[in-house]
Each structure stands twice: as C-alpha cells, then as structure tokens.
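ESCALATION

Customer reports they have been waiting on this structure for their group meeting. Please prioritize. Original submission:
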Amino acid sequence: MYTDNHNHTKHFSSDAKMSAHELIDTCRALNMRGVAVTEHYEGDYPHDIGVSQIFDISEFFDTTKEWLEYAGDFHLYRGIELGYQKHLCAFYDELMAKYPFDSVIMSNHLYNGKDPYFFRDCYEEDMLTVYTRYIEEMADLVEGCDNFDIVGHYDYINRYAPYEKPQIKYEQCPQSFDRFLSAIVAKGKTLEINTRSVDKMRRKGFSDVMPDPAILRRYYELGGRNISLGSDSHTKDTLCIHFKEVAEYLSSFGFTENSYYVKRQRHGEPLV
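Update from on-call: job pushed to the front of the queue and completed.
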C-alpha cells in the first residue's frame, strides 16, 4: 500500500508511453494506495528534439478532471516535474503559485547545459569532477528556489555514466552533498528515492544499485526524515517497481514514512 510520487503519461510528457487510464488501472491492480502524475515541464530546454518539453498547464487541469472521475475512490494526485535551471527559479516560484498542484518535483536534467540522456560527451570528464559539479548545481537550486516539495533523482547523473563503477557516492564529494542535503532539511523539503535509477543500474548488471548508505546516513544525521518513493514510470510495467525492497532498505537507516503530497501538504504512510 504505497503512493508512487513520480510518474508520466503520454498525454503531457513526450517521452512517456502509458495513458492515464493504464496508469490508474495498473496501480489499482497492484493494490497501491495512490499515485501522482508528475508530467515533465522543462523551461528553456536547450535541445531541439522535435517535440515540446513544456505543456499547457490549464489544459492539464481541464484534462485531469476526467482522470479523477475515472479514478473514483482511488487516490490520484496531480503534480508536475519541473526541470530546473538557476535562472528559472523566480519564474517557477511564481508559476507554481498560480496552480493547484498537489506536488511539485524539482529536477535537474542538465550538466553544463546539456542533457546526458542525449549528449554523453559530459562523461569525457573524470567521474569526481562530473558528480561534484552536478551535486553543487543541485545544492544551488535547492538553496535558491522555494516553491517546490520534492527533490527528484539526485542520482540522475549516474544513470547514463559509462564509468566502471558509476554509482554516485557521498565520499566522492562530501562537502557538496552536505550543502545539498542541509538545504533540503533547512527548507523542510523531501528527498526522492527514485527507483527508476535502481532499476536502470540493475538492468545494466551492477550489484551496487541501492542509494549509497553514506548519503542516507548523512541526510538522517542532518535531520532529514522526509523521503519520497518515486518509480519515475513512463510505461505501466515499472509502476511502483522495487518499492518493497527499497522501503525495507530505507527503514534500516531509521526512515519510517513514505512522504506524499495533497494540495502541497506533506503526508506520511508507513514504509514497512
């Protein structure tokens, strides 16, 4: 009985394949407690990939009225995943104040102005340089922006990395992680544990696929208690993927709740 806090549909996210009805039907069949639809919104996305990376938010709220009716008594939440860049903070803060989202995810899909999903040349630099700069950028964003709830996939940068041991670790850039995690705690935000990242590492054959224990311990030491599970699903087959395993793992560090948001207010459900 979990809420999956990070998902995309084909209606408003250009890289997603599942329909809203497929998402709802699958989650109901999995006996999930609820699910958030968090479509991509990438302001000033630097690449021309043939499709828009933003959507009409008013149209989204009009369309999702039917989704809510279809869901009935099943908990469907309307969120958004914003692709942050430092110059967009004020714009996003103002934009989110205008709409009744349940949750707002802050994500960073760029490194040095390019998305590693499309441009892997960023990995020509050494791993420590790349990961340190990425986490420093995440720290800048959390410190400089306010109108968001969840910090999405801090480990996005290691998903496509060609390094022999690509998993991002606290020991690689401890000062940067301290800035990043401290900012999340200071602002009362929630750290996402993205199980799509776990799944991608596992599919590549790595055994070290769980979030780094040192990151989780440090977050807890700094006062962080808010954790959010998100499968980041673009297809119905990965909804809630690895949640039970990851939830048990997180509980071993002292975390007790999966955070989910309703009308921008945090709620908690038991991890185990």
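Sent to customer with the following note: The first strand starts at residue 3 and ends at 4.
Escalation resolved.
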